[in-house]
Amino acid sequence: MDAKERRGAILQLLRNETLPITGGELAARMGVSRQVIVQDIALLRSGGQTIFATPEGYLIPAGASTGARRVIAARHGDVAGMRRELEIVVSRGGTVVDVSIEHPVYGEISAPLHLRTRAGVDRFMANFEQDDISPLSLLTGGVHLHTIEAPSAAAMRRILTDLAEAGLLVE
Question: Which CATH entry fits the domain spanning 68-165: 3.40.50.970, 3.40.50.2020, 3.60.20.10, 3.30.1340.20?
Answer without folding.
Answer: 3.30.1340.20
